[in-house]
Description:
Blueprint lengths: L6 H5 L45 H21 L9 E5 L7 E3 L15 E3 L16 H13 L5 E5 L2 H7 L19 E4 L9 H11 L5 E4 L3 E6 L2 H25 L10 H11 L2 H6 L2 H11 L6
Amino acid sequence: MSPALTLSEHSKNTCSKSEQTPRHDTNSLSKNPLRRTWRGNVEGTVELAVIPKFQDRYAEREWVKAHLAAAFRFWGKQGFGDGVSGHITVKDPVLPDHYWMNPFAVHFSSMTKSKLVLVSPEGYVTPHGAQLPINTAGFHIHSAIHKARPDVVAAAHCHSLHGKAWSTFGRCIDIMTQDACLFYDNLKVYSNFGGIVLAPQEGENIARALGAKAKACILQNHGLLTVGSTVDEAVFLFSALDRLCHVQLLVEAAAANGIPKTVIDDEDAAFTANTLQWWENTYINFQPEYELLLEETNGAFLK
């Protein structure tokens, strides 16, 4: 019988690393980052359905509201509900200076299209949606973001468990995994906590911290914020960032016991980010959840 291994021998990393391979050849890649990620049949008749195009802005409004209601249902499934905290906004296709938002003190898991509120640029409930109050902090944060970033169609913020835990460190996540490349050069930190957001100034501070291009921000001692070209993108990025905060917490615990961590180098991270961060890819990543919600709820959120 061979002798038992000691603890130190158990702890050794016996994996062999592969030889360094040549760097990325991008000449053969499709110019459309979405098209790189899937393939159909030889005949070219199998196609991927992507974001629909609308001639009728009122029809587009109903589509947007359906995806917003589904986004809240998804947050409910993820356990992101936390009292009255948390909000997602999305620009209205009919009145682009207005945005749709969840009502105050309604659980994410019970959201429907008919419960959504259309908010005016001044932050008041309009007659065009549900006649229900909205979250004051949500107005201050989201109105500042929509004003500072005209490219942003949707913004999402709530107090998810792993996001707010990691936020206490006031630092970005490390780019340690393939999915973390979603946030390579795409994540900011608001390194302050100005208290509960009850006035415009704090919302403006958060919008300033997000900056001109990033689609995600860690709000120190608070939580996470993500934005997108669609509500689907904003919500997918939010859940991805929350999971990566969880990964970071696990890795830091292991690293504290002497296990070194490896961060993806800039060239590989940039190459991967070039595909993962494309707005159609982030949109399509939420569609499995949307379709599952339709099936699980029999379309209840469409009411």
